[in-house]
Every structure is written in C-alpha cells, then in structure tokens.
Amino acid sequence: xxxxTRRQVLAQATIAAAVYTLDPHELCCGMNAYAQTASTESFExxxxxxxxxxxxxxxxxxxxxxxxxxxxxxxLVIVDSxxxxxxxxxxxxEIQVVSKKPVKKIxxxxxxxxxxxxxxxxxxxxxxxEIIASEKMxxxxxxxxxxxxxxxxxxTQIKSLPGEIAKLKDEIQKAPNxxxxxxxxxxxxxxxxxxxxxxxxxxxxxxxxxxxxxxxQEGGREIRLMLMGRGHTDGDLYIYLPKEKVLVTGDAxxxxxxxxxxxxxxxxxxxxxxxxxxDISQMIVxxxxxxxxxxxxxxxxxxxxxxxxxxxHGAAGMPLDEMKKKIEEELAGKYESGMSKYEGGxxxxxxxxxxxxxxxxxxxxx
Length: 366
Ligand SMILES: [Zn+2]
Ligand SMILES: [Zn+2]
Fold this sequence. Notes:
Blueprint: H1 6-20, E1 43-49, E2 52-57, E3 67-72, E4 75-79, H2 85-98, E5 103-107, H3 113-116, H4 119-125, E6 130-134, H5 135-142, H6 151-173, H7 178-199, E7 208-210, E8 214-218, E9 221-227, E10 237-241, E11 246-250, H8 265-275, E12 282-285, H9 294-315, H10 320-335, H11 347-362
Parallel strand pairs: 4-5, 5-6, 6-7, 11-12
Antiparallel strand pairs: 1-2, 2-3, 3-4, 8-9, 9-10, 10-11
Helix pairs in contact: 1-2, 2-4, 6-7, 8-9, 9-10, 9-11, 10-11
C-alpha cells in the first residue's frame, strides 16, 4: 500500500508492535491522556472474534473513532477511518501485524468528521477500493450544513482552527502550573498538525451506497449492513456479523456520553431497542472499549431518562439553564460513573450539552 517497500513495512510493524503494548489509559501519573507525543496516533487492536478485531482509538485532542477490522478469505474490510489520514495510516500499520491481506472495502457508519476523514489512505492504497455507506450518509456528506461532518465541513474546520489555535496559545500563557502547560502545548501541536492534514485532505467519498438492510457475502463471511432508522444521525449504518455475533455500531452506541447534536433523540431510543433483539456477543462501539450486549440497555436507559426529564421539565416551563443543573443531578447517580470511564466524553462535561440538544429538538424547536 502506498508503494511501501517490504523493509519499510517491517520497520513500521516493529513500531506498531511497540505501540500495541502501550495502553493509553495506563499512562503514568494520572496525566491527561491527551498528553502523548503529538505526532503519535495510536490504536489498540483487540480481537473480538475469529478474524475480527476492534481498533480502539487512544484519546486525542482531535478525537478518532474506533474501527472494526474484518478479515475475509480474499481481503480485509475495515469499518470507519477516523478523523485524519495519519490515524488511518497508523491503524493500517498495526493491522499489518495481524493480517497482510489487502484492504478491499471500507464501510463508513455515518457522516461525522471523526469517522471518515481517513478514507483517502485506503483509496490511495487500492484504486479499486469500495467505500460503502448508506445513501443518506452520502447525501449528508455532500450537502452543506449537514452538521459536524461532510465534505463542506472540512472547510468549516479549516476556518475555525486558527481561532482555536490562538485560544490554546492564550491558555498556555495563563496556565497555572507546569502540567497544565505541558498538556496545552501538546494539544496545540496536535491542533496545528491537524490543520495541516485538513488543508491537504483529498476527501474519498462512498463509491457504493445501500438504502436498505442487505448482506455482503465477502470471501466466505457474511457481513450484514443494517439500516435501523434514525438515531445518532439520519443514515446510521450498523455492521453485524451473524456468525461471530459481533455488532459494530458507530456512534449510535458509545461507551461514554453521546453526541446528540445531529441526532433524533426519540427515534434513537427505538433504534437501540431494536438492536437489543439481535444475538450479540460483543459490540464494537464508536468510542470506548468493546462492550457486551448489556451496554445497550444502559445506553438506552440514559437516552430514555434524558428525553423524559427534558420533556417533563420543559412542559413545566423550566428555563434551560435551570434544567441543565437539575437533570445533571437527577441522572448522576445512575449514569455518571458508567459514562465517565475515559478522559473524553465524561458525564459532567457533556450532560449540559446533551440537555440543550434534546431541548432544542423537542421543546424549543428553532
Ligand atoms: Zn464519533
Ligand atoms: Zn458521530
């Protein structure tokens, strides 16, 4: 791929093996997990079935999605490609340690920036690569103002990043201690290199779309592509391996607080309930470690109680700011610890935003 020599591939494989042993959540001294070397994207490959791996993304200032890696008799199928080409390249190098088969297909779960912006790496490596997504995902990808993703959103990010970088520089000047300063400096390096990657991005969009649930018979393996209705976005695609009982969910299920800004909260609850009917041994979720099926019940419970609380307080005319504080405390006992396992997407950091997003969609529709 990309014309690498065998020697380069071997050298990269050695690096990948070293990266593999480093669990980013076990980094020393309680340091913010973002405080890794700025140039180091990293994934941990976790086997979840015979020939099936979860590529679990380490925390980064500019978040990466997880990937699913599915080996078939004649090649690899990879689900999602992260926020940047450098991340996709890193995962590809790690995959080389477990399989040298060519990447035949990429599947994108939804249009958000952190799930598809690395597609070009695989497209450059294989001119006949198929990139599969739902029809709605491709529409959203090409439409202006779809939300936080899509081809036009690349330009939006390029415009907003200099402001973000200036803010980080200002925060570095005001940092109260050396640890905070080091973390912010690392974030600054990551933001600057992300901007460079965005400026050079060659968006690789889906070459094949699906508009209803179907199965791929892929080198001796059944890969079911499932459309279950609207949820995290309009056009969420689920990837289900019936033999291995592995479900890949994208951000429709995550092991942290969800992002609801482009979502359909009430339909999302129904969609998750429908997923619970599947026979599942493990799920590769959009962000966070692989989870058992029971996580669906927990995640649906959170969405259900969040929507219920916003509707209840909204009907009573409670102002949004008061509602945010109220619901934060109301749901904390049941959901704070389960939703705060990682550095990113913690309960207290996200609940206010979640309340506001549901409020905007269900109570005060703008
Ligand atoms: Zn995501
Ligand atoms: Zn998303």
